[in-house]
């Protein structure tokens, strides 16, 4: 069947969603199903001295650490987080036990009668305290990770430099706020546990549950249910609650359903790491950035979770899209007695790109030169080396993309007009950001950890089912993968089947994270389809392929040297704002974007990712304020934590430019995360343009702006 | 206590607790198209129509709805299909969790305001959160459906 791969098709999952018949986890009913609610720590750091339970009515029970038959540690990267607190608690909201039973109201009443006696320990509530901790939460230095990357010769760069500029940048928490809260159901039947849930990574949950129960792999099955958004928030956390419902099902021998309320979800699940990033640049008389020293500190929260890899991604992006040949960057993920920071679309990159984009702008302003010229004269080109010494093998279209965005947004005309407007007190501004995102796991993760496998099964009627562990969570993965198979096999799309994964049926093709589903898994689907095509005449065929690390690439994971990624996607965003002179409230008047994601597998799906990602990025930069006090999240209700509404965003004008990636299906590269990364710096730069101030911190809050403006900067 | 609800044109007598919200009652009766994302009437996901007007069922006491007409997606298949077509075409649906509530709100808007312009549409839909689509696809779909240019 001949069709252009980029041309949009109808998504198969959408009609059921519109009709309200798609089944999310809350729509599953099992016979005799029980419900669970979580008893949580109210202390940031304490020893549990004693727990007094009320007398439980018949049919109700407590599930806690004593009910974990295997290892009471969640396997994420390390094993530090317990399924149920084991004598100590390290953050407010840490799970201690489940109360399980038939009636939700009875469960609530039991919960309210449980008394936990704590012996408080002085908590570590900031990264500063964490770096000087007398009683560390983790290890000797209280850092889950402490890495340094370096390249070139910093000493000579410093000697040759004529100017030095140093700045510090800060970013806040961000909550994924997938509209469907976390939820799972555990079922125990004939010696086997099945877990149903709203998840991104079926095999992560499977591995965690196997160890939690001490079960052989064949006794644990994970089924993904239609998932109402993830954005990284359903990458690691489901492993924790998956183990909990598994223990509960095993204990009660009944299905047990645990679904979070929104406020609970906001308060206790993982979020984007707050960051503090210090950058010091050494610049020569021709305004070339010769060298850079960086120091990245992430607030990891109470357990390590995914922090080590988030930190790596932030470090590898620390120089942004600029060719800085000499560089030393230290990164630390600091333990604090706060909710665990985790994965959120961008995974360390939004923090790093905010810092470097502001930094470069501030250097130019400090030196009194044109920021665009300065940035473009330092920009990466094909053949340059990354922060880890990896080669940029493909053409980098950034200069063309910048030109295009400038045209689309009439940036130059606007800059001029805004200058005039400012004279009469109207505060408009426009900002532009440049950024990239590396596709797939960092470093050798795809080769050494994931080793993704993809299977295709063709039946005698010519239907082909794609068997992968990657999930459709709204992003369009099901349609994208089906299109890749159909196009390769030259059969109609209707012949290709994609179902929500069930680990009893699908091989481990890796998690649905790191923008890897199209570029890595899609490529495997394409390879499997090619193999299948050769055997098309057979009645029933099954083919399986496994990921192979592409030739010519290199990664040393001990030294963090080589190709941190095998492909890069690129973006340029412009944001126009208008600032109210009295309240300092900011209105967004326009957004323009150009992305190079190689070839688009489906333009409508791509546009959806672009729009959604940019709006999340704008929320991150502006209204999505989340702070903690004494270890407690202050915005822990849906009424306090606000995400953008349709009123907050103007139409987003976006275009694609294409430098295809030979290693991706039909030349496609990574997309999902890239779209979020550039919005925050473009927004902040637009405000700088409007007000003539320096912004070093997001979210940009009107009250802070007022202070800055009043201080007359 | 007993209340009477006319759900999608069918009268039903239902036993409810005094503090029970409409969301729980309707889901208990099998209308599982209704989803809940916040529980505090701040997202629009749980929207149903009460005598044609959109209300957040998560925060609406069931007893207050006694004797009224309730519409859910299950009850307006044809209209849903008509609007749904544009939602498919414009990529207005990703994870879909917000879709039923959104669609019902569009139907209410259509009945309530004549010839809305694009700003009017945005205003009306501002209470319906969507975390996936950035609202662009949704707004394009509604504008096309309602024949609003610009
Ligand atoms: S769930 Fe009712 S308004 Fe959000
Ligand atoms: S489509 Fe996911 S929240 Fe709207």
TrEMBL record, chain A:
SUPFAM superfamilies: CO dehydrogenase molybdoprotein N-domain-like, Molybdenum cofactor-binding domain. Gene3D superfamilies: Aldehyde oxidase/xanthine dehydrogenase, a/b hammerhead, Aldehyde oxidase/xanthine dehydrogenase, molybdopterin binding domain. GO terms for molecular function: iron ion binding; oxidoreductase activity. InterPro entries: Ald_Oxase/Xan_DH_a/b, Ald_Oxase/Xan_DH_a/b_sf, Ald_Oxase/xanthine_DH-like, AldOxase/xan_DH_MoCoBD1, AldOxase/xan_DH_MoCoBD2, AldOxase/xan_DH_Mopterin-bd_sf. Residues 19-122 form the Aldehyde oxidase/xanthine dehydrogenase a/b hammerhead domain. Keywords: Molybdenum, Oxidoreductase. This is CO/xanthine dehydrogenase Mo-binding subunit. The lineage of its organism: Bacteria, Bacillati, Bacillota, Clostridia, Eubacteriales.
From TrEMBL, chain B:
Residues 1-76 form the 2Fe-2S ferredoxin-type domain. Keywords: 2Fe-2S, Iron, Iron-sulfur, Metal-binding. GO terms for molecular function: 2 iron, 2 sulfur cluster binding; metal ion binding; oxidoreductase activity. The keyword Metal-binding applies. This is Carbon-monoxide dehydrogenase small subunit. It comes from Fonticella tunisiensis.
């Amino acid at each position: 069947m001949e069709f252009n791969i980029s041309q949009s098709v109808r998504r198969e999952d959408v009609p059921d969603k519109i009709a309200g018949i798609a089944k999310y986890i809350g729509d599953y009913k099992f016979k005799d199903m029980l419900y669970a609610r979580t008893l949580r720590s109210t202390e940031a750091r304490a020893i549990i001295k004693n727990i007094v339970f009320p007398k439980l009515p018949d049919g109700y029970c407590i599930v806690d650490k004593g009910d974990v038959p295997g290892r009471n540690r969640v396997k994420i990267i390390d094993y530090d987080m317990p399924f149920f607190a084991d004598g100590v608690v390290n953050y407010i909201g840490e799970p201690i036990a489940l109360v399980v039973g038939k009636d939700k109201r009875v469960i609530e009443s039991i919960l309210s009668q449980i008394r936990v006696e704590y012996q408080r320990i002085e908590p570590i509530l900031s990264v500063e305290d964490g770096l000087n901790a007398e009683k560390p939460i983790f290890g000797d230095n209280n850092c889950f990770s402490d890495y340094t990357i370096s390249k070139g010769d910093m000493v000579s760069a410093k000697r040759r430099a004529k100017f030095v500029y140093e700045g510090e940048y800060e970013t806040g928490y961000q909550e994924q706020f997938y509209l469907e809260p976390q939820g799972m159901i555990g079922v125990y039947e004939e010696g086997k546990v099945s877990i149903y849930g709203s998840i991104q990574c079926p095999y992560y949950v499977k591995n965690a549950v196997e160890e939690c129960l001490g079960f052989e792999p064949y006794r644990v099955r994970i089924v993904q249910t239609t998932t109402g958004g993830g954005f990284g928030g359903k990458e690691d956390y489901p492993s924790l609650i998956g183990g909990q419902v598994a223990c509960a099902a095993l204990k009660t021998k009944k299905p047990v359903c645990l679904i979070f309320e929104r406020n609970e979800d906001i308060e206790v699940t993982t979020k984007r790491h707050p960051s503090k990033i210090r950058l010091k640049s050494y610049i020569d008389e021709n305004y070339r950035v010769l060298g850079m020293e960086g120091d990245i500190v992430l607030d990891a929260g109470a357990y390590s979770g995914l922090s080590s890899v988030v930190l790596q991604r932030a470090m590898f992006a620390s120089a942004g899209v600029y060719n800085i040949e000499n560089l030393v960057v230290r990164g630390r993920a600091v333990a604090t007695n706060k909710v665990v920071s985790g994965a959120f679309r961008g995974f360390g990159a939004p923090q790093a790109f905010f810092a470097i984009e502001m930094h470069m702008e501030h250097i130019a302003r400090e030196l009194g030169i044109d920021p665009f010229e300065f940035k473009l004269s330092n920009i990466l080109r094909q053949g340059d080396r990354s922060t880890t010494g990896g080669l940029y093998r493909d053409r980098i279209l950034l200069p063309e993309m910048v030109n295009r965005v400038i045209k689309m947004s009439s940036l130059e005309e606007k800059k001029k007009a805004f200058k005039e407007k400012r004279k009469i007190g109207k505060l408009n501004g426009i900002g532009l950001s440049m950024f990239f995102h590396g596709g797939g796991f960092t470093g050798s993760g795809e080769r050494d950890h994931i080793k993704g496998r993809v299977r295709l099964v063709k039946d005698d009627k010519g239907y082909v089912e794609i068997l992968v562990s990657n999930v459709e969570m709204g992003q369009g993965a099901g349609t994208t993968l089906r299109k890749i198979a159909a196009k390769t096999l030259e059969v109609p799309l209707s012949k290709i089947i994609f179902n929500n994964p069930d680990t009893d049926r699908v091989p481990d093709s890796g998690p649905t994270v790191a923008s890897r589903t199209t570029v890595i898994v899609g490529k495997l689907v394409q390879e499997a389809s090619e193999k299948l095509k050769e055997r098309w005449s057979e009645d029933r065929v099954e083919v399986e392929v496994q990921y192979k690390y592409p030739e010519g690439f290199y990664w040393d994971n001990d030294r963090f040297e080589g190709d941190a990624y095998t492909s890069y996607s690129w973006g340029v965003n412009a944001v126009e704002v208008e600032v109210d002179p009295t309240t300092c409230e900011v209105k967004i008047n326009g957004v323009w974007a150009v992305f190079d994601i190689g070839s688009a597998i489906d333009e409508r799906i791509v546009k959806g990712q672009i729009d959604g990602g940019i709006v999340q990025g704008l929320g991150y930069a502006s209204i999505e304020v989340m702070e903690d006090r004494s270890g407690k999240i202050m915005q822990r209700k849906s009424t306090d934590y606000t995400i953008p509404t349709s009123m907050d965003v103007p139409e987003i004008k976006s275009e694609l430019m294409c430098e295809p990636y030979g290693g991706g299906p039909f030349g496609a590269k990574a997309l999902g995360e890239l779209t979020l990364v550039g919005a925050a710096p473009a927004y902040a730069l637009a405000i700088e343009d409007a007000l003539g101030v320096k912004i070093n911190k997001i979210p940009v809050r009107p009250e802070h702006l007022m202070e800055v403006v009043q201080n007359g900067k | 206590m007993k209340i009477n609800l006319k759900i999608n044109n069918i009268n039903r007598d239902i036993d409810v607790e005094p503090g029970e919200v409409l969301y729980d009652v309707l889901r208990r009766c099998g209308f599982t198209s209704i989803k809940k994302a916040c529980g505090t009437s701040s997202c629009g996901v749980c929207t149903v129509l009460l005598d044609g007007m959109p209300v957040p069922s998560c925060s609406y006491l069931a007893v207050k709805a006694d004797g009224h007409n309730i519409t859910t997606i299950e009850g307006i298949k044809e209209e849903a299909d008509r609007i749904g077509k544009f939602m498919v075409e414009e990529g207005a649906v990703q994870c879909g969790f917000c879709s039923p509530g959104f669609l019902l709100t569009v139907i209410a808007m259509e009945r309530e305001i004549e010839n809305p312009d694009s700003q009017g549409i945005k205003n009306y839909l501002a209470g319906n959160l969507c975390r996936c689509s950035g609202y662009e696809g949704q707004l394009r779909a509604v504008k096309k459906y309602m024949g609003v240019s610009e």
